[in-house]
């Protein structure tokens, strides 16, 4: 089935990749960074022809929080509309960065978004276009790195992340082997049954990234080979870490930076009122992953793109986060028809996860360092990816030097990030 836009371009409907939950239109137009407003106008009018025929005032606001994609908010205003009324009809257009298919599996992203939307955990998808997606605007306040450090915010992030990890099936974004006729990761009271590794996962994704690194000079080839060898040791050490409640791999966001966390506020509520629920947006990197990696990655993002390492969470902040996370994880992991009276040692679970996050804290630096090395060769966005890569890889090497004792043995000063991480 298809409809026709005013320009005569067919808007075909495609089936959802996740259990046929719903279909979304495909618009055969591109977003053009060289002509942003006009290309965005063509897209929103192709999706909603009534925007062209109405007397409303169409406006576009381009966001700058991300360093991969172009995100544009489209609104249509009529006389007498309140800001909330305008936002309720707003559309977000996210245009993919050039060449990012080497980093991101767009089908897996679509699968993730579709599942999340079906659970009320993501804004409804409205349409696909040639180089991006359109979806409903999420009302609320986009977080800054400073916001992530506020207890009223990070406790809500912890609860929402526990909901993701505890309740969402990774089968939507991976191929899972079956165990005794049951797909691993289904809700079960058998806490000792650990999952086999799904495919893809964090480790296979980074392996693909390393393989995609440029190697057209001896120096670049050596760097790629050195990173590949280092990553082999990482996988050997971390790929079989047991997860809580039998979930060694969970439905992970893997990019939970401040700009992807929205504080949702009821219309008219003051910003300084009690804490509000949060929503997560942008699911490009959603992949089955150990929970400790997703949490450690989020903690790293407290530093922001400026890599303010003095702002990563202290021991007490991490424990407070994990208390809220573990309670939410278990609440969403156990189904209603199972024994809710089952004794669960939450203190032991928190301690286990605390130690795992402690061990994983250097890995986000390696992950985003490799990512940035690729972006430095393909991206057209005005961002110094090369320098960012060195900073993030530096986080990994600093962690390793602390973990193996080589930093202390050489008498070097403890880096700011490691010093902050060790604070009570």
Task: Give a short synopsis of this structure.
This protein is an alpha+beta fold. 42% of the residues lie in helices and 14% in strands.
What does this structure look like?
The chain has 424 residues and is of the alpha+beta class. It has two domains: 11-136, no CATH class; 141-421, Aminoglycoside phosphotransferase (APH), C-terminal lobe (Aminoglycoside 3'-phosphotransferase, Chain: A, domain 2, Alpha-Beta Complex). 42% of the residues lie in helices and 14% in strands. It contains 15 helices and 13 strands. The chain has helices at 36-47, 50-53, 83-88, 106-118, 145-148, 151-167, 202-211, 218-238, 291-300, 315-333, 346-360, 363-378, 385-403, 406-409, 416-421, and strands at 2-4, 10-15, 23-27, 57-63, 70-77, 91-95, 125-129, 132-136, 141-142, 250-252, 261-263, 278-280, 287-289. The strands form three sheets. Strands 1-2-3-7-8-6-5-4 form an eight-stranded mixed sheet, sandwiched between helices. Helix 9 packs across helix 11 (346-360), helix 10 packs across helix 11 (346-360) and helix 12 packs antiparallel against helix 13 (385-403). The longest helix has 21 residues, at 218-238. It starts with a strand and ends with a helix. Mean pLDDT is 86; it is low at 1-21, 178-192 and 336-342. InterPro entries: Kinase-like_dom_sf. Residues 183-201 have a biased composition (Polar residues). Pathway: Phospholipid metabolism; phosphatidylethanolamine biosynthesis; phosphatidylethanolamine from ethanolamine: step 1/3.
């Amino acid at each position: 089935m298809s409809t026709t836009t005013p320009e005569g371009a067919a808007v075909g409907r495609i089936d959802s990749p996740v259990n046929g939950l719903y279909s979304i239109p495909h618009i055969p137009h591109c977003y053009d960074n060289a002509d942003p407003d006009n290309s965005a106008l063509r897209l929103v009018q192709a999706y909603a022809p009534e925007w062209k025929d109405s007397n409303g005032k169409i406006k576009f606001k381009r966001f700058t929080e991300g360093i991969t994609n172009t995100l544009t908010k489209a609104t249509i205003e009529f006389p007498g509309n309140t800001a909330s009324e305008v936002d309720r009809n707003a559309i977000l257009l996210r245009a993919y960065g050039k060449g990012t298919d080497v980093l991101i599996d767009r089908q897996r992203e679509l699968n993730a978004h579709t599942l999340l939307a079906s659970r009320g955990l993501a804004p409804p998808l409205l349409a696909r276009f040639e180089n991006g997606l359109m979806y409903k605007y999420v009302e609320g306040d986009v977080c800054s790195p400073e916001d992530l450090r506020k207890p009223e915010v990070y406790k809500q992030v912890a609860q929402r992340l526990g909901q993701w990890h505890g309740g969402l099936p990774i089968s939507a974004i991976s191929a899972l082997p079956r165990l005794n006729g049951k797909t691993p990761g289904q809700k079960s009271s058998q806490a000792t049954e650990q999952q086999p590794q799904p495919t893809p996962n964090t480790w296979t994704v980074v392996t693909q990234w390393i393989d995609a690194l440029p190697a057209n000079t001896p120096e670049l080839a050596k760097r790629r080979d050195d990173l590949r060898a280092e990553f082999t040791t990482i996988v050997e050490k971390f790929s079989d870490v047991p997860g809580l409640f039998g979930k060694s791999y969970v439905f992970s966001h893997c990019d939970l930076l401040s700009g992807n966390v929205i504080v949702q506020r009821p219309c008219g509520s003051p910003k300084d009122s009690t804490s509000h629920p949060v929503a997560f947006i942008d699911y490009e990197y959603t992949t089955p992953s150990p929970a400790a990696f997703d949490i450690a990655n989020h903690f790293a993002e407290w530093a922001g793109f400026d890599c303010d390492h003095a702002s990563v969470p202290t021991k007490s902040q991490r424990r407070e986060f994990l208390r809220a996370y573990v309670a939410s994880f278990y609440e969403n992991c156990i189904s209603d028809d199972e024994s809710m009276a089952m004794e669960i040692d939450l203190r032991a679970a928190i301690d286990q996860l605390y130690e795992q996050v402690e061990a994983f804290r250097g890995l986000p630096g390696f992950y985003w360092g490799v990512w940035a090395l690729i972006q430095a060769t393909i991206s057209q966005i005005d961002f110094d990816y090369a320098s960012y890569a060195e900073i993030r890889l530096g986080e990994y090497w600093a962690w390793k030097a602390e973990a193996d004792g080589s930093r202390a043995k050489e008498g070097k000063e403890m880096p700011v990030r490691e010093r902050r991480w060790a604070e009570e």
